[in-house]
Amino acid sequence: MPLEPEMKLFGGTSNPTLTVEVCDYLGVVPGKITNKTFSDGETSIEIEENVRGRDVFILQSTCTPVNDNIMQLLIIMDALKRASAKRITAVIPYYGYGRQDRKVKPRVPISAKLVADLITVAGADRVVSIDLHAGQIQGYFNIPVDNIFAAPILLNFMRSSIQNDLVIVSPDAGGVERARAFAKRLNASLAIIDKRREAPNVAEAMNIIGEVQGMTAIILDDMVDTAGTLTQAAEALKSRGASSIDACCTHPVLSGPAIERIEASPIDSLVVANTIPLNGKAKKCNKITVLSVAELVGETIKRIYNSNSVSTLFV
Is the dihedral of CA 172, 174, 175, 177 positive or negative? Predict the structure, then answer.
């Protein structure tokens, strides 16, 4: 049943296809918004319909170009706040700067906290994101944050597509909790890649903890960026006798040499969500399958609008 017109959903330019899919699920028309760029690169936004007293949602992933998309999100929220919107919810399927969530050495910023402050000051009353890189990012906000999970979508795909002896593989120690939760729900084994990272976007797979010989291995991560971690993990699994190797992630960042690495690797398939639109190279890669999070995001928006529980989506 369509929502009442008091709710408005606007989309930035980062992921227009997802915006349309979410609106179709909700039975609403995307809000009218004009985005212009001055010759020097400044972003100009105009909201083209009345939002006074409305419950407004803005869907914008802060993916490539990250800084432009963040700035656009902030400007849209400022425009809505000045147009007297009753409540502004920033729906950020992919939260950029999420990997910079702590001080790993002296004299470095905590950029994830800075972005949280910017979003709050710009006018957000609530934030929705999918699979934050670190759960503690929720605490960087002084407003409600719903960190929803793509797990139900990925799990349904795994159950329908993979039948053989299965092992869920965490590509590093930080992803063990996520991999364990998937393994439990799929009644599968668990393996862990012992990895040492020498520098950002540079990783080396060192050892495998767990049995993978003759099994179907699924490498599970929250994102794939340059695919160095992913492909080295796949090589390690192959050397230990895994019969087939697949991978799943929520956020397909896929920057730099990622596609070339995936195509040259022993990975049979990479399943991703559409929190980030695929770039040109990724669209042509036959190994990549895209699953939509539109229903998940749409149901979350509906429950927030109707003041219903969001957490029961994942029970």
Answer: positive
- Residue 174: its pLDDT value, please? 84
Contacts of 243 (CB under 8 A, 6+ apart): 164, 214, 215, 216
Instruction: Evaluate whether 247 touches 271 at the Cβ level (below 8 Å).
Output: yes
d(CA 214, CA 199) in angstroms, rounded, equals 33
Q: What is the DSSP letter of 30?
A: P
Contact 44, 90 (CB under 8 A): no
* Residue 196 backbone phi and psi in degrees, to 5: -120, 125
Considering only CA atoms, which of 106, 50, 87, 39 is closest in space to residue 306?
Answer: 87
- How many C-alpha atoms does 61 have within 13 Å on its Cβ side? 26
Q: How many CB atoms lie within 10 A of CB 274?
A: 22
Nearest by Cα to 282 from 217, 227, 221: 227
> CA 17, CA 185: separation in Å to the nearest integer?
31
- pLDDT bracket for residue 24 (50, 70, 90): very high
Cα gap 257→222, rounded to integer Å: 19
Q: pLDDT tens, 227-263?
A: 998 999 999 999 999 999 999 999 999 999 999 999 9
In the structure, what pLDDT confidence band is assigned to residue 176 with cuts at 50, 70 and 90?
Answer: very high
State whether residue 267 is helix, strand or coil: coil
Q: Which residues pair with 195 in a beta bridge?
A: 205
Which of the residues are catalytic? 195
pLDDT band at 202 (very low <50, low <70, confident <90, very high): low
Sheet with 126-130: strands ordered across: 7-11, 55-59, 87-92, 126-130, 145-148
Provide the β-strand partners of residue 291: 273
